[in-house]
Structures are given as C-alpha cells and as structure tokens.
Specification:
Blueprint: H1 12-33, H2 41-45, H3 87-103, H4 109-112, E1 120-121, H5 125-136, E2 148-149, H6 155-164, H7 178-196, E3 208-210, E4 215-217, H8 221-235, E5 241-243, H9 253-256, E6 259-264, E7 274-276, H10 278-285, H11 288-293, H12 299-309, E8 316-320, E9 325-327, H13 343-355, E10 364-369, H14 387-395, E11 411-412, E12 425-430
C-alpha cells in the first residue's frame, strides 16, 4: 500500500495533520489485516475464555527453561473439540499408533548419547505438566529414557457398547463400566509392553520405575533409586520392590531424609513411585490368571492379591520415610472435588523440599526394620466381573499389539537407571 501526499497552499500545519491522520489509519488497518503476533498471550491461548495453565510455584516463568512445559498449545484436532471421529480418522489414528510404537524412537539421543534402560511410565494434562517440570529439574535426568504411555476412552462409545451387551456382574452385582476397567487394563498392558515387547529394553535387567501423571519428583529421586538398589543385597535380601513415595501427611526431611523402612508391600501404601526388575516381573507375569481374574478394577489391589495368593514369597519393599515422589492430584478416578487445582499441594511439597534442601542426595542410608503387621484378607473391590475383561487382560501377556480392540496406547520409548557403581554405605538397625 502506498500513500502520496501532495503539498498545496495552506502551510505546513495542515500537512502535518493530514500525515498524522494517514499514519493512524495505516496502523489501524495493519492491526485488522495482519494475523495475531505469537507473543500476544490472548491470541496464543485463544482469548480470555481459554483456561490459563497453572504455573509451578517453584518456577520463575521468565528465566527457567523448564517453564515451557507448562504452556498450553492450541488444540486443533477434532477429538479434542468433542466431535465424533469418522471411521477413516479412527483408522488413521490406529495406523499412527502402530507406526510410533513400532519405531521406538529415542529422542535426544544425539545430544546425550545412548541410555542405560530403565523406565518411567504414565493422562490429566495439568498434572502431567507439573510432573514433566519436576523431571526436567532432576539431576541426571539426561541419562534417563522416559516412556509415556497413554490411555483414552470416549464416554459415548462406552455407553453404546454397554447398551448392546451388559455382560457378567461383579461380586457386588454391578455391571461393567469402561471408565473403571480401563485403568487395570492399561497398567497390565503397559507392564507387559515395557518388560517383554520393547526392543530397546530387550537386554535390560535393571529397575523399572512407574510414575503416574499426577506425581511430582524430588531432584534427587534418581540418586535415591540407585542408592536403594545398591542397598538391597545387604539390607533386605527378600525385598523385590523399591518405593520412593508414601502417603504420609507430614514428613520431616531433617530427621528422615536417610531413613528407609523394610516392610511387606501393601497396595494402598506403596503404589506410588515403585520400581522392580525383570526377574520380579517374570514371577508376577506367571500369576497372570490370578491378576486378570481377580474381581477388582484396581491394578494395585490385584497385584496385592497376586502377592498374597500366588507368589512363593510375598512382595516386600524398601520404602523411604521422606518421600522423593509426591502425589499432587486432587481429582481422579477415586476422588472428585469442586476444585481440582494442584497449587495448594504443590506449595506444600515445594516448602518441604526447600526446608530439607541440605538433606537431599545423602551418601548413606539408615535402614529401619519395622515389625510385620497382619494384613487383612481382601475379597476385592469389584468392577471386574465381566469375562471379556478377564480374557482381554490375559491376552496382553501373549501380545501387546497396539491393534487391541479395547485399548489403543501410544508409547514413546525411553529409559532410566544405569547400573553404574555408586559410592554408598548402608546402616542397618532395628527400631524407629
């Protein structure tokens, strides 16, 4: 666009006014004609009606590079807008899942070199952002291979399926609900996939650590995992699991940062940030019928059932008193609240970690043997009475192909704890 101003009689004052008006008109036209600039926060987030992602209280958003993981991205896919997918779109998604799972692409290998496989695994976006930020700040995270597994279900599809085939009721006379059964299916599929069907992990015999999307890790969680792994032969030869998290409401890093308890594994206490190796997995997998047929939609309670009824020796664990994995989720399958914000929990976690900053990365562990407690026999929580779920669950131990009729999962390959030596010492004592 060009503008020609012809000077006529009337003086400079009139000319200046004319030029000023023309400039203003040009600026207004440019604002209307050009697309929004990328630094415009309203245009990036889609206007004020879009939900603003909650920032991690520990981050200086302007200076910390990890803050990029908290930014929202414009959603353009038809599935995110709530519209139904066509048969062609579903087919394309399935092909992409199979392609990505088969490729086993390891990201950033050209930057950090080959990894020593172990694994972190797991869907609610806000919580997942905070988990990724905490992972990004952890020491030695550049030596880790991460596996993110995703599950997804559509309520309309679930209701349609239920209306056509009711199935078999559970022990409480309730019929199948897909939003509950999918959690156990996903965990069992994921474990089978990682231990037995990921080519890059075929020679890996070390630990695999399981994390959920609403977990948050301390910066020394990898250090503690290695320290605990090194301590097992001397501190607890019967321990087959390591647990980095707990559900204590209060914890004191100054007194408990080095303390680790030896105890029998209990699903409701030790299912957060727990790890085990391939040999333990083989024992669990051998009891797949016990896991898959147990009438409980919770994978952890089903694993406890395996421990109590099938394994030659019940599962025991080393569990940290001062956790390095924290639960920040306020809403989920088992909990519904009006406010699902994780901010209050995050602030508590950050304060605890800051107060105990000097106690992180200990070189020594104090192992505490607690007296065994009698575990009550648990008949199951139900939600898993349908024979089709039993059959599908057992089929995962044969094949974890992404062509499964019920679960389509995307697995981005990655891995974790190296078997490198660590200078450590372990103190073993009884008492608290």
């Amino acid at each position: 666009m060009g503008v020609l101003v012809v000077m006529r009689g009337g003086g400079w004052a009139r000319a200046v006014r004319v030029v000023g008006v023309v400039v203003l008109l040009c600026v207004a036209w440019l604002q209307l004609a050009l697309p929004p600039l990328p630094h415009d926060p309203q245009s990036v987030l889609g206007g004020s009606a879009r939900e603003t992602p909650e920032l991690d209280p520990a981050l200086n958003f302007q200076r910390n590079p990890s803050s990029k993981f908290l930014k929202s991205k414009t959603q353009t896919s038809s599935s995110s807008s709530g519209s139904k997918l066509s048969a062609e779109q579903i087919l394309e998604i399935r092909e992409q899942i199979q392609l990505r799972s088969g490729n086993e692409t390891v990201l950033n290998e050209e930057l950090f070199g080959p990894v020593q496989p172990d694994t972190i695994v797991h869907n609610r976006l806000e919580y997942l952002r905070h988990l990724i930020v905490s992972l990004a700040q952890a020491r030695d995270i550049d030596s880790v291979l991460l596996i993110f597994s995703h599950d997804y279900f559509d309520e309309d599809i679930n209701q349609a399926a239920q209306s056509k085939c009711v199935g078999t009721p559970d022990l409480y006379k309730h019929y199948r609900e897909a939003r509950f059964t999918q959690t156990k299916h996903h965990w069992w599929w994921k474990a089978n996939k990682i231990f037995d069907d990921v080519w890059i992990l075929k020679n890996h015999t070390g630990l695999v650590l399981f994390l959920e999307e609403d977990h948050y890790v301390a910066e020394d969680f990898l250090h503690m995992l290695r320290l605990l792994a090194a301590a097992i032969p001397r501190a607890c030869s019967k321990c087959s699991l390591i647990t980095l998290g707990n559900y204590l409401k209060n914890y004191n890093f100054h007194t408990d940062a080095r303390k680790v308890e030896v105890t029998q594994w209990v699903s409701s206490k030790h299912n957060m940030g727990f790890a085990f190796n391939h040999s333990v997995w083989q024992q669990i997998k051998a009891c797949s019928t016990k896991f898959c047929d147990h009438d409980d939609y919770n994978w952890d309670w089903s694993l406890l059932h395996v421990s109590n009824t099938c394994l030659t020796q019940k599962l025991h664990t080393l569990v940290l008193r001062a956790p390095r994995v924290f639960h920040i989720g306020e809403c989920g399958v088992h909990h519904k609240k009006k406010d699902c914000s994780s901010r209050a929990v995050l602030i508590k976690v950050h304060r605890a970690l800051q107060a105990g900053q000097r106690t992180l990365f200990p070189r020594q562990l104090v192992v505490v043997h607690t007296p065994p407690k009698k575990v009550k026999k648990h008949k199951g929580n139900g939600g898993w009475g349908d024979k089709r779920d039993h059959a599908l669950c057992r089929s995962f131990s044969v094949s974890t192909s992404p062509d499964s009729n019920i679960i389509n999962s995307l697995v981005i390959m990655g891995s974790m704890v190296s078997n490198s030596s660590i200078n450590s010492s372990t103190l073993v004592r009884s008492g608290s």
